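testing teh design pipeline on a random one, pls ignore if ur not involved
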C-alpha cells in the first residue's frame, strides 16, 4: 500500500472578457456617428461571434452583455446610416422646383434696349402747397378742389399783395424755366410782394375756359382782382429767351403797372 497523498481540488482557470465583445461594442458606438454601416455591420458580426464563443467557454470567457451592447448599437448605427444615405440621395436627385429655377426671360424682354438716361430738367412744381422766395409766395393748387373757390380764398387773405395767376403745363419747357428761375435774386425783386398761383391747364381746363384764360400756350400771367377774376395779362412771348435776365424786367413792369381790364401783352 503506497503512501497516502492529500487530494486538493483543482482551481478553475480565471475568466476573462471576450476580446471580440469589446471590439463589437466599440464599433457599435462608432457606427452611431457618421460611419453608419461601415462600423455597424462588423459590430453585429463580432458581437454574435463573441456570444457564441462565451457560451462554449464554460465560464472561462465573460462579456456577454458587452457583446449584446455591440450588437444593439451596431443595428441602430446601421439603420441610421441607411436612412441618412437615402435622404441625401433623394435631395441630390430631387427635381428642381419653380421656386429654385431662375426667372425666365422672354425674348421681347431680352431684346429690349435699356432706356436712355433722362436729361436733367428744371424741377417740376409740387403737386400742391406753398413756397416762398423772399417776399415772393408761390402756391400750387389743391387739384381736388374747385379753381374759383381757391382763388377767392387766396385773394381774400393776400390783401396788400399782388396776386398773379400763372397757367402751367407739366410738359412745357417755358413753365419749367420760369419755375427754375424763381429763386434768382432778379426774379425775387421783380416779383416782390407777389402771390403767384400756378394753375395746371389740364386739371382746370373747363374753369379756365369759363374765366376766358388762354390755355393754348403756356405760361400766361394774369392779375386777379378782389373777386379772383383776371384783369391784365402777359405771356412768355413778352420777354424772348426764358432766363432771369429777360424774364425779370418784363414781369416787374407788368406787376407794377396800372391794371387795365383785359389788356393782353404778348
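output:
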Amino acid at each position: 500500500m503506497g503512501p497516502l497523498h492529500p487530494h486538493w481540488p483543482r482551481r478553475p482557470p480565471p475568466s476573462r472578457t471576450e476580446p471580440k465583445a469589446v471590439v463589437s461594442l466599440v464599433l457599435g458606438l462608432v457606427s452611431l456617428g457618421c460611419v453608419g454601416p461601415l462600423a455597424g455591420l462588423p459590430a453585429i458580426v463580432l458581437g454574435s461571434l463573441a456570444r457564441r464563443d462565451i457560451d462554449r467557454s464554460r465560464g472561462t470567457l465573460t462579456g456577454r452583455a458587452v457583446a449584446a451592447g455591440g450588437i444593439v448599437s451596431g443595428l441602430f448605427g446601421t439603420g441610421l446610416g441607411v436612412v441618412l444615405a437615402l435622404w441625401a440621395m433623394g435631395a441630390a436627385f430631387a427635381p428642381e422646383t419653380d421656386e429654385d429655377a431662375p426667372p425666365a426671360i422672354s425674348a421681347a424682354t431680352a431684346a429690349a434696349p435699356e432706356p436712355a438716361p433722362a436729361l436733367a430738367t428744371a424741377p417740376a412744381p409740387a403737386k400742391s402747397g406753398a413756397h416762398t422766395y423772399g417776399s415772393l409766395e408761390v402756391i400750387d393748387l389743391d387739384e381736388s378742389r374747385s379753381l374759383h373757390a381757391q382763388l377767392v380764398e387766396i385773394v381774400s387773405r393776400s390783401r396788400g399783395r399782388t396776386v398773379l395767376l400763372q397757367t402751367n403745363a407739366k410738359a412745357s419747357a417755358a413753365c419749367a424755366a420760369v419755375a427754375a428761375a424763381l429763386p434768382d435774386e432778379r426774379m425775387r425783386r421783380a416779383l416782390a410782394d407777389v402771390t403767384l398761383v400756378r394753375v395746371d391747364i389740364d386739371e382746370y381746363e373747363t374753369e379756365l375756359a369759363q374765366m376766358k384764360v388762354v390755355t393754348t400756350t403756356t405760361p400766361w400771367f394774369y392779375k386777379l382782382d378782389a373777386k379772383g377774376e383776371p384783369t391784365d395779362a402777359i405771356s412768355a412771348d413778352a420777354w424772348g429767351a426764358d432766363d432771369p435776365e429777360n424774364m425779370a424786367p418784363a414781369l416787374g413792369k407788368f406787376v407794377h403797372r396800372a391794371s387795365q381790364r383785359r389788356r393782353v401783352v404778348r
